[in-house]
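ugh ok fine here u go
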Amino acid sequence: MKKIFKSAGLLAMAIAVVSLTMSCEATRNANNAQKGAVIGTAGGAVLGAILGNNVGKGGNSEIGAVIGGVVGGTAGVLIGNRMDKQAQKIEEEIPGAQVERIDDAIVITFDEGSGVFFATNQSSINAQSQANLDKLSNVMKEYVDTNIVVVGHTDSTGGYQLNMNLSKARAMSVTNYLTGKGISAGRFTTEWFGPDQPTHDNSTVEGRAKNRRVNVAIVPNQKMIDDAKKEAGEN
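structure:
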């Protein structure tokens, strides 16, 4: 299991805020909540995790709008705490998945070595993948104040349009399966990029296997943000 906490900038300020109001555990969460302030682009670190090497080359405006910016202050600490708990629950339920806490979001990567995978050139969800998506859907039902972004990718082998269609079909399969479990379709944004957004080297077998992936990003919705600000006395 791999859980990554990426941090940048404003760490001292985050700790100062937390020391007045929160526990040592919350200090760790505050670091997650504060780090996006110096990135300069709303959701930039999350987009990088989802879109890989070509994050700056367009095609991500809709995803960026859903992800939004990073909430600072005590409200951001509260959101970070809630998202940390959700990430931990996902890790416990789906030990094969790669779960990252980045900014205010959770990014889950499913590839051929993890909990949701597809047969070659297929988009149907097999029995093992269904079992893991069932577990993920249960966590999503427990934490209702989030939006969900599903993004499909392929490696660079084969025809370009075939890969675009395949990444779309796989992303839609994941989205449709989760909505079929009773999660509101209004929480979802679904995108696909075929081979255009690699995270690893397509010239190697290992790299291509990593690039054949579906990312699921879980981000706080406006209700969670408003509730956190209210609890923190910031609105």
